[in-house]
Design brief:
Order of helices and strands: EHEEHEEEHEEEHHE
Strand content: 25-35%
Radius of gyration: 20 Å
Shape: globular
Largest sheet: 10 strands, mixed
Number of strands: 10
Structural class: alpha+beta
Length: about 260
């Protein structure tokens, strides 16, 4: 068996999340990709894929990495390129397969990742966005970005983020300690519309962790909480004390990093 790493992008609004569902009528990223792989590679059964980070319904991805195994000799660069073109011909326009590489034996897109980067986009004007509505959260009340940055600094480093994940996904015995290495608040223009980007990089993330962090930070930026409240929320390890879960469409799984030795071709 040979292991492969595939990189794809997708617009999350067209999918009920990444993970395959028991009901085949529910459209998911994983289900769509695996069906296309089976067709292109003429497999009798669907390949078992593993992704770098599962995304919920409505969440987008720019560089999602997926690993899977195939029997037979390893594919060369030309063959991988042909498969990529065939996959893009079979998958919907809201999904784009970017590349395919032979990886080292046993490579896992999930467990071999060094870091993951998410970006959350906010349109902060009193009127709704014209172009960015499908991938930005419209927050009409003016945000205090200095307060947002101050509060975000409390989240840097290794912490127990139990307060910042979905309660049902974090039973008492689950390890909810994660490390955030970077939180940046950036401003830029997209087709003439000013967006606020919250860039978060960490070793791993809990279910809805980024969206709950963003929702909490926005409440600070709106004056509903103080920056110091974030420190108290962290210490409490209680989801009910954190802010709202920001809408799915503003979140993009931006990239994932691996050791260079994981890839062969």
């Amino acid at each position: 068996m040979n292991t492969y790493a595939l990189t794809l992008s997708y617009e999350g609004l067209d999918f009920s999340g990444f993970a395959r569902q028991k009901d085949d009528h529910i459209t998911t990223v994983q289900g769509t990709l695996e069906q296309a792989l089976a067709t292109v590679l003429r497999l009798d059964t669907l390949p078992q894929t593993i992704c770098a980070g599962r995304t919920d319904a409505g969440v987008h991805a720019l560089s999602q990495v997926v690993s899977f195994e195939l029997p037979g000799p390893g594919l060369d660069t030309t063959q991988c390129g042909q498969i990529v073109r065939s996959l893009n011909a079979l998958t919907p326009a809201s999904m784009s397969v970017r590349d395919l590489h032979l990886a080292c034996g046993g490579f896992s897109a999930r467990f071999d990742a060094i870091s993951r980067e998410y970006r959350y986009y906010i349109f902060n004007e009193p009127y709704p966005p014209t172009f960015a509505g499908g991938f930005a959260w419209h927050v009409p009340q003016k945000l205090n970005l200095d307060a947002l940055r101050y509060a975000a600094d409390y989240l840097l480093g290794e912490h127990d983020f139990r307060s910042f994940c979905t309660s049902s996904s974090a039973p008492a015995e689950k390890n909810t300690v994660r490390e955030i290495t970077t939180i940046e608040v950036l401003e830029h223009s997209f087709l003439g519309e000013q967006l606020i980007t919250i860039r978060i990089v960490g070793n791993a993330f809990l279910h809805s962790m980024v969206r709950i962090i963003v929702g909490t930070l926005c409440e600070v930026a709106q004056g509903k909480r103080t920056p110091d409240d974030v420190l108290a929320i962290l210490a409490a390890k209680d989801r009910s004390l954190a802010g709202q879960t920001a809408p799915a469409q503003g979140l993009i799984f931006h990239r994932v990093e691996y050791p260079a030795e994981c890839f062969i071709v």
